[in-house]
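INTERNAL AUDIT FORM
Audit reference: QA-55
Scope: verify that the stored structure record matches its stored sequence.
Auditor: D.O.
Record contents follow.
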Amino acid sequence: MKKLKKVLLLGSGAIKIGEAGEFDYSGSQAIKALKEEEIEVVLVNPNIATIQTSEFLADQVYFLPVTPYFLEKIIEKEKPDAMMISFGGQTALNCGLALWKKGILDKHRIRVLGTNLQSVEITEDRGLFNQALSEAGLKIPHGQAVTSIEEGLRAAEQIRFPVMIRSAFALGGKGSSLCYKKEELREKLQIVLSESSQVLIEEYLEGWKEIEYEIIRDEADNCLAICNMENIDPMGIHTGESIVVAPSQTLTNTEYHRLREIAFTAVRKLNIIGECNIQYALNPANGDYRIIEINARLSRSSALASKATGYPLAFMAAKLMLGYTLPELKNTVT
């Protein structure tokens, strides 16, 4: 990889109670990784109450909203060689995708480090996500991506109530609901579709366990499962509102290794470079599984995994995005 001189790092923007604090941690670690390589770091984050905006970290900090409008202005002024969007949560991912689709990144010849934007879009677009994993022979919940209330109602009739609805391109489970009746679904869809262009209607996996894996992968296709976690609550309770334990407590050895191998297959199919979080539903009765979601970014689970294992996930992910391979990197913590 060509030696980079300046990298633009997208922060998470405003932090709400119980949401996005983990991105301050991951962004700070990414800055440290870049500075170790003597790369100039330009940070965009309007939140002054964060560690990553401290004077001793980034070379230049813009306290501006993480939106395409302001990012284009900053790009024109700073002329960075590349950009990192995986350390600012959903806000940064959505902004990076918008810049790409508007042609701004191509116009200014800026590379996005780590997972390419086509793969990021697949993980965020529910229809593309289901299609990609199905092609790889991996199981996903029976469902359908819809863009209108009528489509959603027809999909629910085919899947049968109760159904889960989940919004695409959303942070913290926003737009997720469990619906038992047609009128309830209509009401929820009206709200969610006013904020998102796409909603996934899928089977409700009541009573299934929720399991997570933190996976990292380099450009040479080396993969590592850094940590796996288990939600104390079953499916239906959002991870952010549940208690998560690392490592998992109730998986058999066979289940653990099976889900690990499935995770490797998924990240290779999606060409993830750096770190990602994979969420599973696991049937406790027969070991059947569904891949619920893949986040091609650092998440709240990544922060927990780092603390639980002593493995600096965000720092290592940043190094992998710069072109290092896993065998070349040493754990700076342990």
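Auditor finding: record pair retrieved intact. The two ends are 28 Å apart (CA to CA).
Action required: none
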